[in-house]
Amino acid sequence: MHNYITVRTKSNKISFQLSKKVAMVTILLCILLCGMIMLALSVGSDFIHPVTVLKELFGYGTGEYLFTIQTLRLPRVLLAVLVGMALAVSGLILQGIIRNPLAAPDIIGVTSGASVGAMLFLTYATVSIHYLPLAAIIGAGVVSAIIYLLSWNKGVTPIRMVLIGIGISALTKGIVTMLIVMGEEVRTTRAYIWLTGSLYGANMQDVYLLLPWVIVLSIFTFVMARVINVKELGDDIAVGVGVQVQVYRLLFLLISVMLAGTAVAFVGGIAFVGLVAPHISRMLVGRSFAALIPISAMVGAIIVIFADIVGRTLFLPKDLPAGVFTAAIGAPFFIYLLFRTRNQHS
Amino acid sequence: MNSIKLISFRKMVMFLVLLFALVLVGCGNKESEDASNADDNNTTQESSTDNNSTENSSREVTHSLGTTTIEGTPTKIVTLYQGATDVAVAMGIKPVGVVESWADTPYYEYLQKDLEGIPLLGEETQPNLEEIAKLQPDLIIASKNRHEEIYEQLSQIAPTVVHQDVFDFKGTINLIGESTGKEDKAKELLAEWESRVADFQTKIKDKLGDKWPISASVVNFRADHARVYPAGYAGEILTELGFKGPKNITENPLPIVLRFTDKESIPQMDADVIYMFYIEDEATKKTLEEWTSHPLWKELEAVKNDQVYRVEEVYWNFAGGILSAHIMLDDIYDRFELEK
């Protein structure tokens, strides 16, 4: 029992056990994440020494690199961190409540809904492109709601949601393709970049808009962690120990949609992070949900930062969408996952 | 065993409502900020037009995304779309940085001599901001369709002027002329173009007589579909020359591009003369063969009269500039065996 530290508030409302292993992994990931952030701020068209980066950031620099670091690199890195965290936590919640290791924000219609919203905006809207995130998030909300309502039959079961989610996502893909075919050429190239997901052109305003969502929702999820722990055992057991299954399922779905929806709204359909980050985290620390939240968030952030670093430095002077590389990391891992699950059953 | 006590549902709802309120406030702030920024822009615009009459060294250029003040005569110019690069070269400007071409990367063959050695800034759709900043330009020419999102960052690097369409070469000429103080050169280029258009119209009328104006369509074959460009770069130039659009496309205004996946749509391509372009790869060649061997293709007016020509996509579609327009026009002169 000495491997665990138990944290419990007086009123018993929040409680979790912290294993020493989890603490170690958390600290290591923190260091890795900080290292990645420093690396991302240092590399680019020109390598800027990390010490110079720190000096410039804290106002002791010569100002020579201030613009590059503060205006071009910093917002991009911060947005990568937030998006990675949001997608990872969203995926983690979904995999917990749908009780399916292959669940990801795409399944509940977030990505596909946001895509339809964004494509409609790119094809028909005449207002400033800065309203694109709004269109995407509305799309995500609407399609998720449709999936939830269609799955309703005296309550919602995970399996029905998954099946209807797959059906609706096929439908939305069809709509997206149709809109691309109908759209002007200049707009469709923009659409393809959005669908791949890119951190290009990030600014501090994006960061400020995304920040409250990610922080508040992640903390909220952390507070509610033990409910998900119970839900992972299945609806019957959850009901048995006194969890209002339907209410909490809706609540967690809502959180998951909000997290992934806002992230996708700003950067487009960055794929696989929501699927892969929770799995990597489970391999690191096991199944305790409270521990998985910060770990997945950090893993997600690291994946997105890494993908963006690769995208903007490996093929200079080209600046490629980060989504290309999250898919490149994610797809093989996905296959590995399927492979492993198959072997477990045989 | 302790039963698990949970936070009451009501508290959670309150919490979420609070959260929504918080985020909405955040969004609201952003909008009011934008609004106040817009006001600022308006006021600066008004006040600076007053300055303009007294000070000649700074210029006010109004464009698709606002008004930009340009000090002195820019010498280090960055062009962020193909048409702007072409026009800059035509005006005798050597850009300090350009985006990669769509074909024959990194530069189109016809611009090779003029652009040799100029730093590349990545692709037109996502030009590398750090590379642009490194060049320390004093003017950036961008396009609204491609670069609206990064306009603010670009403006922090250098005064940025933005043109609405990437293929409207006349607009690009005016914009670059105005921004660089080469209005005379811009007028000269446009006048030269207009006189060539007039020359073409007289000669083609002499040659074809009553048959003129004939209709023309610009057709493009791709690996998995075919396209017609009724408007767009080539379409608009053909219209300016006096050609009628494809016979069976009556939409007004003409669409920029129509994409076809079904060979039943072949009649939509019908015209007295067809100019087509495609790239040389196996998949595209297969599409081309399938479409052009279809019975409906053989019914087309241009096909029956042997008036189908393969043209170079760089000049007819990709480049989008004034130099490429002249090359395209030369091409049309040659096909009709007219004297230039």
From TrEMBL, chain A:
Recorded topology in the membrane:
Multi-pass membrane protein
| GO CC list | plasma membrane
Q: Which GO terms describe its biological process?
A: siderophore-iron import into cell
Q: Does the keyword Acetylation apply?
A: no
Tell whether Transferase is among the UniProt keywords: no
Superkingdom of this protein's organism: Bacteria
Recall the GO molecular function terms of this protein's record.
transmembrane transporter activity
Q: Which UniProt keywords apply?
A: Cell membrane, Membrane, Transmembrane, Transmembrane helix, Transport
| A UniProt-annotated Pfam family | FecCD
Q: Which residues cross the membrane?
A: 21-41, 47-67, 79-98, 104-124, 131-150, 162-182, 207-228, 248-277, 289-310, 322-339
Record's subcellular location: Cell membrane
In the record, the note on similarity to other proteins reads: Belongs to the binding-protein-dependent transport system permease family. FecCD subfamily.
Q: Which PANTHER family match?
A: FERRIC ENTEROBACTIN TRANSPORT SYSTEM PERMEASE PROTEIN, FERRIC ENTEROBACTIN TRANSPORT SYSTEM PERMEASE PROTEIN FEPG
Output this protein's name: Iron ABC transporter permease
The upper taxonomy is: Bacteria, Bacillati, Bacillota, Bacilli, Bacillales
